[in-house]
Amino acid sequence: MTGRDGGRLLVQPMSSPQPHRTTTLRTAARLLAILAWATHLGASPTTFPNWLAAHGLTGTNDTAAQLADPDGDGASNIVEYAWDTDPASATSRPATAVECSGPAFSATFPRDPAKTDLAYHIETSSDLCIWFIVARSVYGRPLVNLGGASSIGESGGNPRLATTWIDAATGAPSQGFARVRLSYKEQRPAPGLLWPDGIEPGDPATGEAPVGRRNWWVDSAAPAGGDGSHGSPFNSFEVVEDAVRGGDFIYVRGVFDMATHSSGHRMTLNLYRAQAGGSPDSPTTVKSWRGSPRAVFDSRRTSAQLRASNSAGLRFQNLELRNFGDQGIVVGDGVTYAEMVNLVIHDGQVTAGSGIGGGLVMYAADSRHIFVVRHCEIFSTPDDNPGNNSGAFSVISEPSAHAGSSVVVRHCLFHDNHIAVRHKHAGRVHMEASDNRFEDNAIGFYLRMWTSEAHHNLFVRNGTAFQLDSDNMNANHDYRLHHNTLYDTNWLASTMPDQGGFVANLHLEDNLFLDPTPGDGVIRIGSGDWNWGANDLSGWTSARNLFLYTPDTRPFLHSAPPTAHLSRDFADALTQLGDTTSRRIDPRLENPAGDDFTLRADSPAIGAAADGGDVGAF
């Protein structure tokens, strides 16, 4: 469209927005383009899905996808969500107003501060290849001028009309381009407990066991002679251990103290009989009474109080374990599916050698195992002998563990431990760890998994985030670390030496590393006194990570004594890894020293990840 300077133009977003597709408008002085397009970053558990459901776009069909256009009006669902138009009506279409005034022009669009899963990026270009961000609104926050706009402003209530004026008078080319880029960010729940006060809502007298299964109630303060019902609960576990069958629910209340343990008054629960085993769809469940404070198991530094050795399906939920000795909760190799939910495990003391201790210990040796640990808090687990390498949460597996075995750790908080998560020995086990927080641990992960994927985790004041070991391996192992944020943590990764010809390959993408404390390096190669061959890095990859650390002379790759042939600075290290996209730059976090690790509006991490999302965990 050709016209004169001045006037007002209304621009419609494109159908199924895609990166680098542009609708073009010409004026006498310049070429102006306004583009509204969405970056697909995954499904949000809150705002956007609620909007979809409100418009009848539910289920797994294509009409519920972000980039789908069910009404065929040229605007995708995510754009209609941002503009608050009707995705089921072709006559209700998003629009961006463009106004020209001499050498300047403006773009005006609606912005709803309540939609905190959206970000708006106002960008300009002279060639449609290189784009510069001139203003931005990040996830519900006001529009911020990043230095490229002559003025910005917002008016109205909710939604607001956001206007950006761009002055191209000085040195302006004969044509120019601008776009409004819309990005959608998955809103991830903060790590931590589902019920922080330990009280799960619900009627304590109503059992949850499925049809054909039984509910049992145990109250440590109940009188003797109960029958296990809600009105007459057991006061210990010796009877329920024999009576429970697969899929039953056991509700526990009170404090189960090892000091009161006797042959006739059992304060420990052992699910070791074959008939006690449930299934993944109907697990045998042990949990606190609903409506009551979390039940407490006090081990008094003695043996484990919660133990299961035979079950196709097991769940421990909303329980507290304290003062354990060597091992707290033990899930034996006979358990093939186990889920740990909303557990609090703390103040134990690990003294057992060979790394087999921990507050939560799960064994995977001769079967295909699925272990899920979510919304738990595990803390204050030191190690009398750090050489034992026992984790607050330990997975013990052997080379005979079946392919397809997996460990999932999500939305957990680990703090003040020697090792937070420890995997001992090898075996064909895969781990996924996401949305966890690791704080003040000597080591976050000590891994020997066959494959591991750790993403969207936060590490604060840890010694080493990832200790990667190739000992006892039967194949090369791959560790994929992406979208993690590490603050005031000395080592991002530390590798153990090559043993038996197998190595731990490290893949780093879209991570944010900010360490203001002077240290020895960022990645330590071959920790200990062993050599690590240069060729062992051939399987490593790195891309789009942001690093800022002190001092400037601090090496990036640092090999342990007695060899230092891989002590490389940042530029040399990236060359060694074939990385051309990672940068040493301030990520501009809001207030990391004050525990706010969200990105500022001018952060270079915004939109810099492979999927168009943000680098780091937030």
General description of the model:
The protein is built from four helices and 49 strands. It is mainly beta. The model is unreliable at 1-45 and 528-535 (pLDDT under 50). 5% of the residues lie in helices and 37% in strands. The two termini are 41 Å apart. The strands form seven sheets. Strands 13-14-17-20-23-26-29-32-35-38-41-44 form a twelve-stranded parallel sheet, with no helix packed on it. It has a twelve-stranded parallel sheet with strand order 15-18-21-24-27-30-33-36-39-42-45-47, with no helix packed on it. It has an eleven-stranded parallel sheet with strand order 16-19-22-25-28-31-34-37-40-43-46, with no helix packed on it. The chain is globular, with a radius of gyration of 28 Å. The longest helix is centred in the N-terminal third of the chain and has 8 residues, at 47-54.
